[in-house]
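request received
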Amino acid sequence: MNTTELPLRPDVAAFVARVRESLADLSDEDRLELTEGLEADLTDQVAEHGGTVLGDPEAYARELRSAAGFDPVPRRRRLHVPTGRSLAEQLDIVRHLWDDQVARPRIAPVWTVLVALRPAWWLVRAWVAAVAVARLVPGWYPYGFVWLPGVHQVLAVVILVVCLAGSTWVGLGRLWPGGARAVTPRAVLLALNVVAIVGVPVISGQLEAQSWSRYSQGYNEALRGSDDEGLVSRGQQVCNIAAYDASGQPLTGVQLFDQAGRPLDVACYGQAGRTVPWVLGDVNRWNVFPLGVRARPARTPERRADLSGASFPTPDRATTPAVTNPLVPEVVEPAPESDAPEGDAKKRDRQRDGVRQE
Amino acid sequence: MDQTQLLKGVLDLAVLAVVRGEDGYGYDIVRRLRDGGLADVGDASVYGTLRRLYAAGALTSYVVPSESGPHRKYYGITPIGRDQLKRQRDDWHTFSTTLDGLLDGPAHSTTSQGASA
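response:
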């Protein structure tokens, strides 16, 4: 009877798969040796005697193991390291148990992926090492802690490249003092890897804390306003001021000072290039308004000397409504101190003490 | 008496005997054993024994691919296997002759043996 060409039945395939699972504790070689050809043999048997010939796969596996000289039931693999052996032997035993565990049919595919990702681990541990080294550099500060903590960028890149090369060489097994078999280097490498594993969340936690502190620092700075921002109105820098007297006539050459008598200088971005300051002797005054506006920005001192096309700004409205203040006696002539147009009334009230008018 | 218990000691010998003349795949060997009178032999026991004999060097094995079905694994005897077969066959003959003598011998002999023990 030629049964070589019988196709594999699904029930036979499932049965053999269960048998293989029951042999999972054996080595790949032993398992293959025991089950290679089993599909064909069982297919023949099922063809002769029907599907009922397939019994309990576990019992079948026990019989198979027993006859082949293995323990009938899988021994529970414990991660137990016998005492009284040298460190090298214990490392070997742990390594062997580990290899057995990851070779199990359900774990092996996942382990294969993890093994393929080993270079990523080399990168991560190189980064941990580089951070650790960078912290030893004098003048370390916690800013710029993304790639490396605060060392000079060139130095940071050099440290990272060196660590990455070292980590990769060690990973490839080409660089490790004493070779891969010597006990002390193995133990040290193991310990360093553990440190790196622990180091990742620690560094990551610091990173998060520092990015938060940087954020709050920046937030606070923005809230305070920094010293060189000049005059700020409603959160925006003031670049120029248009002054009117109480009767609504525009004024030119109004000098403004604060409550302490300090000049109310404006300092917008590019102020010097876009406006023409008033001059006291040879000193530019940025607290006298309105400032003249240049036709085009002048970024060099030479071009700033050229005033062609520059002029005082023309307000949207030539006049504002006349205003009164009960503190100021009503006079026919324009009151010299109440010069605020409507929109800036509050600010002008605050600044009134310091305002002088020509 | 349960044949399974008796077989445990001599399955190696039986398997070597049926592959002596011609190579065979797993179930083929099971069939030869059953056709030869060992009707109760378990196939898993035979496959396990084949593996053990192979590991001991008594058998050689090779896989024959099949176009449509699962691959077959054939076993053949090696010189080591032939030696083992010859040795174990002699052992068996000696053993069975002894046992025959015990079973067929005079009743008093058995009694005296039991008494002396």
